[in-house]
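S.,

Sequence below, as promised.
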Amino acid sequence: MKITVDVSEKDLKDIIRFSGERKKGPAIAKFLTSELMLRRRRELVDEVMEGKVRVDFPHWEKMQALDRQNPWSK
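The prediction came back faster than expected:
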């Protein structure tokens, strides 16, 4: 989807620099994609920290015990 946005020259230079792209369109698209990914990660982390999402590691205790027995055999 194509849209028109107003971006200052200073911000556009930073977007191009941070995205690593040379052209304006791909730079904005790449920057937007990476920013969305970071915000989604932050949202997931917040949900985990608040206890809304639970992450189970069923073999965690078993692996921890193996690491304590012989930590250098990996």
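The mean pLDDT is 89.

Coffee later?
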